[in-house]
Design goal:
320 residues; 1% strand; 2 strands
């Protein structure tokens, strides 16, 4: 989860109050909106100043002074933004896991198909001697062994978070722990959401507390990305045993307006990120199987095996 610390007003809500205000697995919440994607979920009220500023039906709030109503609007916007961030982060993890597992499991099949295509083209060119067939054979062989560009050389070393887990493990001599699944288990997803809601850096009261939450959430994100349910449980215990932060007093109107404005800008940035994820090639593939993205890999593998078999039969007919 990416956090923009610059320009954040100092007033924050305490995580205990935030956690009580939210219920896990709320119907229709952005965190459960895999079918429509995080960007689509953002349209339903994720912290815009207009909806967030609407007063509650509660009579006491309706009679409260303007600063109290504005403070309530900030709380609503904070809750909605955190739910949206959770939706974006869970989708980002699935996109990166799918990309990594797709490369690991299906890469050899794609390479085999390219090699068979080259052999078929070369066999056909040898049989016909046609210049056009010779040209096609050369092009097919060039695809099998291309000259790598700079991006391709570093593709397996760097991802959106910097060094990939595999690269970091090699440099630190730690064991590689690739993701086992595209989508972590339901229990891992539940643990992640609870921790993100309680420990989110945007709920920090000062920069020291924000730094503590940033470091903690970084570990939470890494554990969730690997689907490490046991580690997420350990992190939940660690957070529960941590220091209790006193509740922050929300400031007066100017500070509250600044906070609300920052929340709105943060939502806009996340919306752009969500749209980029959904419009990527892997994101588009995931939207084809929103309920079971792990099964999609199996379906693609079966399709590729069928194509390999067809190519091998075609090649056998040409070299006889």
């Amino acid at each position: 989860m990416t956090h923009e610390a610059a320009g954040v007003p100092t007033s924050r809500n305490d995580d205990a109050r935030q956690g009580d205000a939210l219920q896990d697995e709320q119907p229709g919440s952005p965190a459960d909106a895999h079918a429509e994607g995080p960007a689509g979920a953002a349209e339903g009220g994720t912290g815009g100043s207009g909806d967030a500023g609407a007063p509650s039906d509660d009579g006491a709030l309706g009679q409260a002074r303007p600063e109290a109503r504005l403070a309530h609007a900030v709380r609503v916007a904070e809750q909605a933004l955190i739910e949206f961030e959770i939706a974006v982060e869970t989708f980002r993890v699935e996109v990166e896991n799918f990309s990594r597992l797709h490369h690991q499991r299906l890469g050899p099949m794609y390479a085999r198909l390219d090699e068979l295509d080259a052999q078929i083209a070369e066999a056909r060119a040898a049989r016909t001697g046609d210049p056009e067939d010779l040209r096609k054979a050369q092009e097919a062989r060039a695809i099998v062994m291309p000259m790598p560009g700079v991006d391709e050389l570093f593709h397996d070393w760097i991802d959106s978070e910097g060094l990939s887990p595999e690269a970091a493990a090699m440099l630190t001599e730690q064991p590689v722990r690739p993701p086992k699944r595209v989508r972590p288990t339901d229990e891992a997803r539940k643990l992640y959401r609870e921790l993100a809601r309680k420990a989110h850096p945007d709920l920090a009261q000062d920069e020291k507390e924000r730094a503590r939450r940033d470091e903690f959430i970084t570990r939470v994100n890494a554990a969730y990305g690997r689907g490490d349910e046991a580690l997420l449980k350990e992190l939940a215990q660690e957070w529960a045993a941590g220091p209790v932060v006193p509740e922050a007093e929300l400031g007066e109107a100017d500070e509250l307006y600044a906070r609300l404005n920052w929340l709105t800008q943060r939502k806009e940035l996340l919306t752009v990120l969500a749209q980029e994820l959904e419009q990527s090639a892997i994101g588009a593939m995931l939207r084809m199987a929103p309920d079971d993205p792990d099964h999609l890999l199996e379906e693609i593998a079966e399709q590729l095996l069928g194509e390999v078999s067809q190519r091998e039969t075609e090649l056998a007919g040409l070299v006889q």
